[in-house]
Amino acid sequence: MTAYTFRSDMGAFEASLRASTGIVDRQTRTVTAVFDLAENSGAVAGQVVRLSVPLNVDARGFWVPVSALVESRRGLWSVYVLQPEGGDYRLEARVVETVRVETERVFVRGAVSEGELILSGGIGRVTPGQLVAFRGGRGQTQASE
């Protein structure tokens, strides 16, 4: 049997699929499934848990926090890239395409090169072209493919 990983407030645990109705509920767009939990799972009846499904995105791009996305023109999205200028950085908006959206992160591709620094938070307090100081670590992420 295939083991599936679930996450709860108590941590992660595994369960195996016993049965699935295979019928999609038209209103909720869900399928009912029954899993057998190990006795030491710590889960109790009625508790909300989340099924962790590994996802491989077969596309060029990179993950950024949702907080890094900036609404752009004509329904597009952008990220702010930190361009070195003297001892500071100038913010440059770059258009990106959202390939996959999850709760806290987004897989994007677009006009960002590998290794460029991306502002990942506080986007509501800055504007393109603004000069900022980089303190390192927090509030940025590095593009990688």
Structural write-up:
- With 145 residues, this protein is mostly beta strands.
- The chain folds into 2 domains: 3-52, no CATH class; 62-142, conserved putative lor/sdh protein from methanococcus maripaludis s2 fold (Beta Barrel).
- It is 0% helix and 50% strand.
- It contains no helices and 12 strands.
- Strands 5, 6, 7, 8, 9, 10, 11 and 12 form an 8-stranded antiparallel sheet that branches. It has a 4-stranded antiparallel sheet with strand order 3-2-1-4, with no helix packed on it.
- A hairpin with a 2-residue loop joins strand 7 (77-85) and strand 8 (88-101).
- The chain is elongated.
- The two termini are 34 Å apart.
Oligomer: single chain
Class per helix and strand makeup = mainly beta
Q: Roughly how many Å apart are the termini?
A: 34 Å
Determine and state the CATH class of the largest domain.
Mainly Beta
Tell how many strands the DSSP assignment holds: 12
Give the SSE order as H and E letters: EEEEEEEEEEEE
Total DSSP helices: 0
Integer count of domains: 2
